[in-house]
Design a protein that fits this description.
Elements lengths: L8 H27 L12 H10 L2 H27 L5 H12 L6 H15 L2 H11 L2 H47 L11 H5 L10
Length: 212
Amino acid sequence: MIARLGVPVQLCNVLLCNVLLCTVLLCTMMCGAAAAQVVALDSTPPSRAQVLALMSAMGVQQNIDASLRATQNKVKLAARSSFEKKNPGADAETLKKLDAVFDGTPLFTFDDIAEAVVPAYQKNLSAADVQAGIDFYTSEPGKRLLEKIPVIIRASNEQGGQLVQQKLKDYSLALERKLEAFQSQVNPQKPSEAPQSKAADDTSKTTDGKSK
C-alpha cells in the first residue's frame, strides 16, 4: 500500500531505524544509571511486571510510542503529498478518505514489541537492579534526570557537531598525507630514461629497403 501511494520504502526503513536506534541509546543510558544505584545481593531475575514498571518509570514506553506516532505521521504526509502530485484534482473528500486509510491502519506500538525487549532486561539485570531503577526514576532526582536528558543530548549535539567535523577534516588530511608518503615508498619514481642516440636511427633501413 505504501509503495503504491508513492512513499519510498527507504523512507520508512530510515524512520523506523532511527526510532529503534534512539530507543536503544535511551535505554542504554538510563539502564546504566539505574544499575549504578545498587549492588545486587542476588541474581534473581526481575519479573515481567518489574521490567515493564522500570521501562514506564524511565519513559521508554512513552518515548517509543511517541516516536512511532511521529513516524506514521511522516509516512502519512509523504503519501498525501505524493498522491496530490499524481492526482492534482483530488477534492477534500478524497483526501479525507486517504487520511482515513492511515488512521485506520495504525503502526505497531510499544505493547507489540515489549515481549521482545523484556527478556533482555531479565537476562542482564537482577530483580534488585530493576527495583533500584524503579525507585530512582520515580524519585525527584530521577525525574529531573529524565527531564534534562533530552536537553543535554540536544546541547551536546549542537556544541559538539562543529568540533567533530573539524576533527574529521584534520584526520582526513593527516591520513591522506601518510597514504601519499606510503605510496611513494611502495612505488618509488624511476629515473627518466636517456633518449635514444641518433646513431641508432642511422642503422635503420633506407627508404629503398637497403642498409647503408
